[in-house]
């Protein structure tokens, strides 16, 4: 997601966005507390009725602590792992997973219902330290009205983005602080290889790419095609976002347009998978386990797409018709093995920072 998935558009639309200063769980680790805290990035959202069902059935009151963009939230969770802010962390994705596991962020727990998760999303099967929750494609989105007005064909590939006709049009997120920003960097590394991605970014920088801290700023302030960007008078008609962003622009528009005002450049996509896990020093492990079980249930997985604009990972979970019409996942996204990400990510980000930001 996330970070990202149209969080600003869903304010006031019946979604729960509870917050807490920290875990209010019991301090003895017994799991007797009737309060459980979820730590997440800013794009966490769930329907009130769905969360209420979990709280009624489990007896646990859920508190949500939002900690910024996904990259920031993961880094903070690692720094506070000995005295965590909560019991469960949601929102670490495949670009940062090895960092979280390598730093001992999570303890083992195989969530009930894990056998319903599609096999291609399962990882860490020996230890079950994380549970897959959702998937999405990080892709460049474009403002249809801009390209129509300028009689310009929207870019469809990484190669297109460095062409002169797209100079000063693209805004992306900082790969060091933002999950979609890092995903976009990894997409270029997957496309051009270790020997070629830096040369590509030199061309992209020369072509006027703008870098901002996170998804919220990029999408809802800089991007001319989003509802938020229009209000903020954003002037960049290309943005690194998600293949699931266009349907959100339809769903939350009033009146609803017949077609999405934004499109997806499917030749620029990188597959993202998000996970949740029981924090290693969680104070309420019993409540945390119950919460992880809930995130895999069909009720939550069916509810998730229209709240966080991601795809479910559970077999036979429902995908909204708006997704099928306006936000199809990429048919051939760039992918990268977790081991390759783990081996290269930090050096790539360091090199990217020196190349693009300095």
Annotation field: number of helices: 15
Radius of gyration: 20 Å
User: Level of helix content?
Assistant: 25-40%
Question: What is the makeup of the main sheet?
Answer: 10 strands, mixed
In sequence order, what are the helices and strands, one letter per element? Answer: EEEHEHEHEEHHEHHEHHEHEHHHEHH
Keywords:
alpha/beta, 15 helices, two-stranded antiparallel sheet, single chain, 358 residues
Account of the 3D structure:
With 358 residues, this protein is of the alpha/beta class. It is built from 15 helices and 12 strands. It has helices at 48-58, 70-79, 97-102, 144-149, 158-161, 179-192, 197-206, 215-222, 227-231, 245-251, 285-296, 298-303, 305-308, 321-326, 338-357; strands spanning 15-16, 35-40, 46-47, 61-66, 88-93, 106-107, 131-143, 170-173, 210-212, 238-242, 262-279, 311-312. The strands form 2 sheets. Strands 2, 4, 5, 6, 7, 8, 9, 10, 11 and 12 form a 10-stranded mixed β-sheet that branches. A two-stranded antiparallel ribbon has the order 1-3. Helix 6 (179-192) crosses helix 7 and helix 7 runs parallel beside helix 15. The longest helix is centred in the last third of the chain and has 20 residues, at 338-357. The two termini are 28 Å apart.
């Amino acid at each position: 997601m996330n970070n990202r998935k149209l969080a600003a558009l869903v304010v006031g639309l019946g979604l729960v966005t509870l917050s807490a200063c920290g875990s209010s769980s019991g301090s003895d680790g017994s799991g007797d507390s009737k309060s459980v805290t979820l730590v997440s990035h800013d794009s966490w959202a769930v329907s009130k009725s769905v969360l209420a069902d979990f709280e009624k059935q489990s007896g646990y009151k859920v508190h949500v602590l939002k900690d910024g963009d996904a990259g920031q939230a993961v880094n903070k969770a690692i720094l506070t792992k000995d005295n965590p802010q909560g019991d469960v962390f949601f929102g670490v994705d495949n670009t940062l997973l090895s960092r979280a596991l390598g730093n001992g962020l999570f303890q083992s727990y195989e969530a009930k219902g894990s056998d319903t998760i599609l096999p291609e999303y399962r990882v860490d099967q020996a230890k079950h330290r994380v549970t897959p929750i959702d998937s999405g494609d990080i892709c460049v989105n474009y403002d249809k009205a801009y390209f129509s007005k300028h009689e310009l064909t929207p870019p469809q590939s990484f190669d297109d983005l460095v062409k002169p006709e797209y100079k000063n049009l693209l805004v992306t997120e900082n790969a060091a602080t933002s999950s979609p920003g890092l995903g976009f960097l990894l997409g270029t590394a997957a496309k051009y290889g270790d020997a070629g991605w830096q040369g590509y970014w030199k061309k992209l920088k020369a072509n006027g790419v703008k870098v901002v801290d996170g998804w919220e700023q990029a999408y809802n302030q800089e991007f001319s095609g989003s509802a938020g960007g229009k209000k903020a008078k954003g002037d960049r008609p290309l943005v690194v976002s998600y293949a699931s962003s266009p349907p959100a622009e339809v769903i939350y528009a009033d009146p609803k347009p017949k077609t999405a005002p934004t499109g997806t450049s499917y030749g620029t996509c990188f597959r993202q998978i998000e996970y949740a896990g029981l924090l290693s020093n969680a104070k309420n492990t019993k409540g945390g386990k119950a919460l992880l079980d809930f995130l895999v249930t069909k009720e939550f997985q069916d509810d998730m797409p229209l709240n966080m604009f991601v795809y479910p990972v559970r077999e036979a979970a429902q995908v909204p018709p708006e997704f099928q019409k306006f936000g199809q996942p990429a048919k051939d996204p760039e992918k990268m093995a977790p081991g390759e990400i783990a081996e290269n990510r930090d050096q790539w980000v360091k090199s990217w920072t020196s190349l693009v930001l300095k």
